[in-house]
Amino acid sequence: MNRPRRPTRGATIIDVAAQAGVSAMTVSRVINNREGVRPETREAVERAIRALSYAPNAAARSLVTAGELRIGVIYSNPSAAFMSEFLTGVYEEASTRGARLMLLRGPGTAPPDRAAIDQFTATGLSGIILAPPLGEAPMVVEALRDTGLPLAAVGAHGVPGATCVRIDDRRAAQEMTGHLLALGHRRLGFVLGNPDQAASAERMAGFYAAVRQQGDVEVKVAQGDFSYASGLVAGEQLLDGPAPPTAIFASNDDMAAAIVSVAHRRQLDVPGALTVAGFDDTTAAVTLWPPLTTVHQPLRQLAAEALAAVVADAAAPVAARSGREIVLDHAIVTRDSTAAPQSSPR
Fold it and tell me: Rounded to 5 degrees, what are φ and ψ at 153?
């Protein structure tokens, strides 16, 4: 299995926790010299801090002494597995920075309305984090820009005045497609994500880039929207017909899990008769059988970077804030859902 590489950036508390083999809350207790940490655990954390040259954000600490940091998180993502990872990353980073999190959830899969956003930002927030896909919701971004608050958008591209924190979706999808081609698959299925999100277009572009490089590939595509239900429909569409794909790459893990369910219902062995790959590496990837080969997107670290960026901007003069892009590493994680195609047709 390929392991995700540690991002090439300043270490966060999550990196320290992983190095020491403890929780981020334990690292926070050590940093703040609190009781309740065993001496050997404290020593392990301190070794990890030295090895990673980790330093708590001084600007954040000065803000805590001047007044409480209140960071708003706005989300409406339909994937419970995705949001669990995302919110864990935000909470772990906030615990080391003295920040209090305030949450605003949109109804269903829709963003909050303007009145809800205005009411939310009027509660005395220090900055805002937008979970995917709200960084691409024009009304939400415009409403927040009017407040002048520091803003970070995770998974978004080129949001004016905001810090965008993401991975290279196109390159990640190209690498996963290349992995399937290297296994010998030449009939590929691809499940698109929500057409309103830039990540969907980037992942599709990466898929086709790898296909064009190979040159002798049959492609069948189905539209999804990142939900499990849409993956069920897409799976049925892709597997109908006389020459269905031998491998299907879905644009997220929820849809890939749905493809596996469709395969099981059709009595197709995964990966013997059908290879399936996903994207994100959420808990959905390891809570089904077989566990999914997938693109590891470091959701906790993306969320932590977003919080760190908002805290830094909150400590800086308004004139010094500017939109920037933070791109973290991804990795291809191979599990039991992928294999070489069978020599005989299904």
Answer: -120, 120
| CA distances, 53 to each of 12, 44, 49, 157 (Å) | 10, 14, 6, 30
Please name which of 109, 96, 112 lies closest in space to residue 144, comparing C-alpha atoms: 112
Closest CA to 217 of 341, 67, 127: 341
CA distance 226 to 83: 13
The pLDDT confidence band at residue 64, using thresholds 50, 70 and 90, is very low
Neighbours of 161 (CB within 10 A): 14
Please state, as a whole number, how many other Cβ atoms lie within 10 Å of the Cβ of residue 200: 21
**Both tokens assigned to 295:** 């693109």
pTM of the model: 0.78
The whole-angstrom distance between residue 135's C-alpha and the CA centroid of its chain comes to: 13
* CA–CA distance, 235 with 265 (Å, rounded to integer): 11
Angle at 324 between CA 322 and CA 328, to 5 degrees: 155
Q: What confidence tens digit (pLDDT) does each residue in 156-182 have? A: 988 888 999 999 999 999 999 999 999
**pLDDT at residue 320, rounded to an integer:** 64
Distance (Å, whole) CA 265 – CA 243:
18
Per-residue pLDDT tens digits for 69-85: 889 999 987 678 888 88
Q: Percentage of the chain with pLDDT > 90?
A: 57
Considering only CA atoms, which of 124, 172, 113 is closest in space to residue 149? Answer: 124
HSE-up (13 A, CA, CB side) for residue 195: 4
Task: Give the integer Cα–Cα distance in Å for 158 and 171.
Answer: 18
